[in-house]
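LOG
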Amino acid sequence: MAQDKTGNSEKNKIIRVQLKKNPEPSAALYNEKDIRAIVDEFVTSWIKGDLIIRFPTASELGKQNPLSITFPKDPSVSAELKIKEHYVDLILVCAGVKSASNEEQKKAIFEVFKMILMFRSANRIENKKILNDLEKRVTEMEKTQQNQIKLVEQITAFLFKPKKAKRETKS
């Protein structure tokens, strides 16, 4: 038998192999990378002002809270502020402005994704870019219409302009 430098024989060497079972493929529509990309695009659009989020107002929250009659201070106002503060806090974590661990960042991304779904389902997200584009299109149509009105007036004035009487120069 052959021996290595330490004097141990090859026969005593044991190689252990551990096989890992492949995880089953996920049935989810979006994987973590897709969710991250959606949240990234959403947050970027919101920061640029291309999106408007209509958060629940204090009056909306007050309708759902029957205890608001018994409290001297309306808790729905603080609830409205807490929702907005929570959202901004999550955005700060997602953007990396607020220090957080990798696990906290992942959690914040998934929380923002859930909020996007909730806001969309409640019809609380407006795309200002589309609205601005629509305004531009309407403005262009109005200009075109004004130009067409001017052309029609010019044509009408030309067609119905009194004709000059021909002067006969018979002498």
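LOG (cont.) second protein
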Amino acid sequence: MHLANHVNVRNIVRWLVAGALTMMCAIAAAQPRYGLSPEVSAVFDRWVLATCIGAEERKLAEDLRRHSVPLAAAFRKAIADGPPRDELRAARAAAEARFAVREKFPIQEYRVEGVSEKDLAAFSRVSRQSYVDDQVQRFATGYRANAVAGLGVIGGPGAREVLTRIASNRNDPLALAAREAIKAADRR
């Protein structure tokens, strides 16, 4: 590997770490939403901001059920509202940082396997604005989808009605998450 490539890899890692720290600072600085107590807000945030819960699933589901009454209302609001502005700003800043790293990465100097030349060319043509907007939209949709899943975990009065309404709208990006939440609730 050339020294220049080694330096680029180090810079990529630095940018990724900076983006992750930016996201974590935004989360830590956030005030509890929807009038939740700090304890319930921490459970809410861990759930809606999760990208993978893996081994924590059982414990987190128990936490959701323990606080089901305030969380049911919070999840319904989060489905409608999406993430708060400060979290969207943090997601945008992280996406900007990732794009800056991506922009500086000399992909043409590497042999990339499993990706067509056409796809690599399309990857190279994506504008900063398109990339950042896409990443922010994905974050917002993921946040809302997690709220849908959380509502499915805790159930309660009106949860199935909300989930069914979302699931029946094939144009809603949350429809699949709602259908899965209903299936999961039915298995319990």
